[in-house]
Amino acid sequence: MLTVEMIERAPTGHDEGYAGQEPLALTVGCEFGMDSVQPAEAIMQVAPLHEPGVSIFSERWDTRAQHHGYVDQYGNRCERFELVSGGSRVSYEAQVMLARPADVIEPGAREVPVAQLPDSVLNFIMPSRFCLPDELGHEAWQRFGTLAPGWTRVQTIVDFVHGALEFVPGASNPWTTAADAYRAGQGVCRDFAHLAITFCRALNIPARYVFGYIPAIDVPLPAEPMDFAAWFEAYLGGRWHTFDARNNRPRIGRVVVGRGRDAIDVALITSFGPLTMTGFEVRAEISGTLAA
């Protein structure tokens, strides 16, 4: 079995003309070229989640491969494919509307004591394959343990990770943990998310990995082709809040594809059989706006 969490490249494509928190219409999608020396099964996670504030007006798959969808234990939408030997092409596109497209900043959000955490979020303070609060716990308490609990402490963690890691495409591999990236001082966006999650969990702040599309709206133009992105959510004040250690700035138009303990739960492609990527494109751009 092979999992591909993300093919790490910085996003491109700059959309002008959006202002405020009015609803935002986006076109998101991707296209893969794949080659296999034998028939293979594959699971892809590229479709936006059905969740409050997100309307999916249309979506389509374009491929000759047999496929069907299902929902995993985290509520993520997965598509299961039967790929033939030789070359395969899979394309996905969706038209979505975001009711509140801008990141929400709530500096007053407080940490929830462990004794008061809902049972459903306890899993997100535990170690997972890539996030190791037990290994980096001493470091976390030394750096952040004396800070006032709450939003500001999580943002301080984000600031630290943003400065501690250098974004280097190809710097990590599918086996790189948060501790590996921390020691190396470099990584890709999944590593930024994993390290911030690790520090949060070490402080008993539930944190979960998020993967999806981010259009380039009101941000400088990167040089590389667009890709999927990774960020994380921390549980504060009784609900989940968005934080982004890679970009470390509020963004507009995040479209969530999946959430989980870490990248292993929301792999872009999981293949059962040898599979070689021969082409890859991602699209996320404004397709229109509606007045609030």
Q: Strand order across the biggest sheet?
A: 1-16-4-7-6
Sheet of most strands: 5 strands, antiparallel
Rg (CA only): 19 Å
Spell out the helices and strands N to C.
EEEEEEEEHHEHEHEEEEEEE
CATH fold topology of the largest domain: C8orf32 fold
The CATH class designation of the largest domain is Alpha Beta
Number of strands: 17
Low-pLDDT runs: 1-18
Shape call: globular
Calculate the terminal CA-CA distance, rounded to whole Å. 46 Å
- Count of individual helical segments: 4
The CATH architecture of the largest domain would be Roll
The overall number of domains is 2
In terms of DSSP E residues, the strand content is 35-45%
State the gist of this model.
The protein has 292 residues and is of the alpha+beta class.
What does this structure look like?
This protein is globular. The protein contains 4 helices and 17 strands. It folds into 2 domains: 2-101 and 268-289, Sandwich (Immunoglobulin-like), CATH 2.60.40; 114-265, C8orf32 fold (Roll). It has helices at 133-144, 151-164, 178-184, 189-202, and strands at residues 2-4, 14-15, 24-36, 40-44, 54-62, 66-71, 77-83, 86-98, 166-167, 186-187, 207-213, 216-217, 229-236, 239-243, 255-260, 269-272, 276-289. The protein has 292 residues and is α+β, with helices and mostly antiparallel strands. Strand 6 (66-71) and strand 7 form a beta hairpin. Helix 1 packs across helix 4 and helix 3 (178-184) crosses helix 4 (189-202). The strands form 5 sheets. Strands 1-16-4-7-6 form a 5-stranded antiparallel sheet, with no helix packed on it. It has a 4-stranded antiparallel sheet with strand order 5-8-3-17, with no helix packed on it. The chain has a 4-stranded antiparallel sheet with strand order 14-13-11-15, with helices on one face.
